[in-house]
Structures are given as C-alpha cells and as structure tokens.
Amino acid sequence: MTGAAGAGDAEPAPLGKRDAILIDRYLAMLAAERGAPRNTLLAYRGDLTDAARHLRDLAGATQAMLGELGLAWAELSPASLARKSSTLRGFFAFLKAESVREDNPSAALPRPGVRRPLPKILSHGDVDVIFATIAARLRQAPVNPLDLRLAALFELLYGSGLRATELVSLPLRALASDRPFLILRGKGGRERLVPISDRARAAVAAWRAHVPADGLWLFPSGKAHLSRVRLFQIVRELAGEAGIDPQRVSPHVLRHAFASHLLEGGADLRALQAMLGHADIATTQIYTHVDAARLVALVNARHPLVDLAPRSS
Predict the structure, then answer these.
(1) Residues 122 and 257: beta-carbon distance below 8 Å
(2) pLDDT tens track for 49-106
(3) What is the DSSP code string of 21-36?
(4) Across-strand partners of 185?
(5) What distances in angstroms separate CA 173 from CA 18, 193, 206, 227, 276, one per listed residue?
(6) With 0-12 CB in 10 A as exposed, 13-18 as middle and 19+ as buried, what is 47?
(7) What is the spatial distance between Cα 15 and Cα 54, in angstroms, rounded to a whole number?
(8) Which of 108, 141, 160 is the last residue of a domain?
(9) Same structural domain, 134 and 90
(10) 268 part of a folded domain
C-alpha cells in the first residue's frame, strides 16, 4: 500500500560526496590544528551530517536555505540549537578560508541566547564528610589497596581540580615525590602546570606502592587505565556512603568545588583559570558563584575608603 508517510518515517537523504569530503577535511583540521577531542569531533560530525542530508548540498547552501534549516530546528532546545548553529558557522568559515566558496552564508543561522547553567556545588561540609568517610576506610586494618586508590583519586579531583579524563589517564610516574606540581596536556592540546598538595602526593605514593612497577598507568584497570565511567561510579558510590545524595556528586562537581572553594579563599581568577586549563576567562567565571553577601563584606573590609571617616553633613 502506498501512502504519505510521516516525516519521521522517511529515509534520510544520502550524504553527498562533496559534502562528505569537506566535512572530513574540516574535522581533520579541528583535530590537527586545535586538538579537538574525539567526543567533540563526533558531535560536530553528527550536526554537519544531519544538516547536509536535510539541505542535500550543505557546502553550497544559500542564506535562504539556512533560514529554512533554522525553521526545521524550531523544536530544539536553545542549547541544542546554539550548538548546531555554532558548528555550521565554523564549517562555513572554514570553507571560505579554504577558498571553497567566496561568501559565508552563516549569518542566516539562528543565534539563540543561551545561559550556561551554574554547575552543581558541594559545600565545605559536604567535602569534609566525604574525606572523613575515606579516612574511616583507611583506618581499617589491614588497609584495602582499593581504599588507597580511592584516597588518591579524591585528593587529585578535589585537591587539584583535574578533569576526569586527565585523572584516569595519568601515567604511572606523572607525579614525582619531590615535585609539588605536574604538567598536563589537557583540552585542545594546551599544557598547564597543576599544583599538587602534600596530602595528594602522600596519597598517590601510598597507592603507587600497590601498582606494578612496569605498568603504564597510575590508575590501571585490566589492559588499560581506569575508565571515566568507572570513576563516575566510584565517586557516586562514596557519596552515597557518606550520606550525600549521589545525584549531587560527580568528578566534575568535585572539580567545580576545587575552583569555587579556592576562589572563596581568595584565589586570583587568572590563577584559577591557569590551574583549570580554561582557554577563556569567561569559562572560569562560570565556576565562580560567590554569594552577594560575601561580595558586600569584601567591599566593606577591603575598599580603600573604608578607613576614612564619613563626611559630616
């Protein structure tokens, strides 16, 4: 039986050969010149492929065609719409820079205003409870080597603000006992110096004594290193044991706690940006929700006019 199938039932249009080649070239450039991580490249490929199949000629799209694409995206969330538009703007800028086309039609793409949500936060009390739970495990005799690993993981997550991927993929000898820092290559291939506290170095040394000396990774698992998924599970399991809602805790939440608690303690925003490895200071500012009362108290205590007597009327 023939009939009008719904739009969702239609077979997607095949990806044109020219679009496929240019998408591959664009992603190769992002990987080689900007160090874009694999997950980012996969997301960009999905956005570009979907747009190419919808338009049937993405590389040759006009502003009118991109305007129709915006209408097709009308039901998307503002965040998804912003991501897709950003991906296509980068692609068309690449085509113009490579002289594939003389113009850039991306002005027709929607530009939704998207506010980044504030990340979840842990209080100082929450962090104290988490580390008290770890300490209680370490007091058991004999100590379980996995509890030593747990201590090292949490000391590095909260004590140095490492990203989950950076943490699980640390080489075995990344941390030297006589060096209070390590040098990481993070997002985009950017190197940064990460300070390591005495507590973290001690925790790592205790755990490393249980890692095979000829291994590659500080946190080995099977034939590779600990996975990000397993790290996420470990963090949430400990949160539950500590009496904290596991939904509130993740490796990234601990990284955020590192940043916000340092800022509360008086850390300089630029220094924090360097430690977190952010290319843009605006990203660091997302991690800084200092409450208004503290800002008022800071002005009242530190402003240069504080010590001057008020003028009499």
Answers:
(1) yes
(2) 988 888 889 999 998 888 877 777 767 777 788 888 889 999 999 999 999 999 999 8
(3) HHHHHHHHHHHHHS--
(4) 191
(5) 46, 16, 13, 19, 21
(6) buried
(7) 9
(8) 108
(9) no
(10) no
Q: Based on the structure, what is the number of domains in the chain?
A: 2
CB 38 within 8 A of CB 78: no
Give the end of a domain, one of 108, 135, 166.
Answer: 108
Helix/strand/coil (H, E, C) string of 217-261? ECCEECCEECCHHHHHHHHHHHHHHCCCCHHHCCHHHHHHHHHHH
pLDDT band of residue 268 (cuts 50, 70, 90) is: low
Output the furthest CA–CA distance in the chain (Å, rounded): 92
Structure tokens at 108: 């027709």
Give the model's confidence band at 115: pLDDT under 50 very low, under 70 low, under 90 confident, else very high: low
Calpha distance 22→10 (Å, rounded) = 25
Residues with a known catalytic role: 163, 187, 252, 255, 278, 287
* Structural domain of 200: 125-248
- Between residues 35 and 85, the one the model is more confident about: 85
